[in-house]
Design goal:
Largest sheet: 6 strands, antiparallel
CATH architecture of the largest domain: Roll
CATH class of the largest domain: Mainly Beta
Number of domains: 3
Helix content: under 10%
Mean pLDDT: 88
CATH topology of the largest domain: SH3 type barrels
Strand content: over 45%
Length: 187
C-alpha cells in the first residue's frame, strides 16, 4: 500500500479493479477544506486516460508490473509472436493490444513486454527513440536546404515520417516513438 502523498510519475496502482499508471499528479491544499491529490491516470488494460481526485493521504494498492525483454519475431495473422531472449519461450499478443506500437516494431527488434502478476500481458514498452530505415521517399532537389522544407518518407515498418529534404532512400534515421517524428540521422 502506498499513500497518495507519495505518488510519482510512472507509478502503477490498483484502483476500482483496474491497473493504472500515474501520468500526472498535483497536490492541492485549498484555503478551506482538506487537501487532495488531482491525478491523470492511464488504464493499462484499455489505454484510456482518466482524471481522478484522491483525498490526500489515502492508501492505494501498488500494482506489480514485470517487464521482460523479448524479441519480435513475426506476425501470424492477427497475432504477433514475441520470444523471451533468456528462456526462448514464445508468446502471441493480439494486434489490437499493441496497435500503436506496431508502427515502430520490426522483425528482430528487442522490446519490453509488460506483465501484471507474471500472467496478464499488458502490452509493449518501446524505447523513446528508435532507428528505422527509409525504404521509400522522393529524391531531394538541390538547393532546397535553405527553407525548413520536408518530404514524406516511408520506413521499413510502413510508418510515414516527415523528413528533411536531404534524407535519401536506404538511410537510417532516428524516430521518436512518442509522436512518430524525425529526430536526426543515425550515425
Amino acid at each position: 500500500m502506498i499513500s497518495t502523498n507519495d505518488f510519482k510519475t510512472g507509478q502503477t496502482i490498483l484502483h476500482d479493479g483496474n491497473i493504472f499508471q500515474v501520468i500526472e499528479f498535483m497536490h492541492v491544499k485549498p484555503g478551506k477544506g482538506s487537501a487532495f491529490v488531482r491525478t491523470k491516470l492511464r488504464n493499462l488494460r484499455s489505454g484510456a486516460v482518466i482524471d481522478y481526485t484522491f483525498n490526500a493521504g489515502t492508501k492505494i494498492e501498488r500494482a506489480q508490473i514485470d517487464r521482460f525483454q523479448m524479441q519480435y519475431l513475426y506476425a501470424n495473422g492477427d497475432m504477433h509472436v514475441f520470444m523471451n531472449t533468456d528462456t526462448y519461450e514464445q508468446l502471441e499478443i493480439p494486434a489490437s493490444q499493441i496497435e500503436y506500437e506496431l508502427k515502430f516494431i520490426f522483425e528482430g527488434m528487442n522490446v519490453d513486454v509488460n506483465f501484471y502478476n507474471g500472467i496478464e500481458i499488458l502490452g509493449v514498452t518501446l524505447p523513446d527513440k528508435i532507428v528505422l530505415q527509409v525504404v521509400e521517399t522522393v529524391p531531394g532537389v538541390k538547393g532546397d536546404t535553405k527553407t525548413n522544407a520536408s518530404k514524406d518518407a516511408i520506413m521499413q515498418t510502413g510508418l510515414l515520417v516527415k523528413v528533411p529534404m536531404f534524407i535519401e532512400e536506404g538511410e537510417k534515421i532516428i524516430v521518436s516513438t512518442q509522436d512518430g517524428s524525425y529526430v536526426s540521422r543515425d550515425k
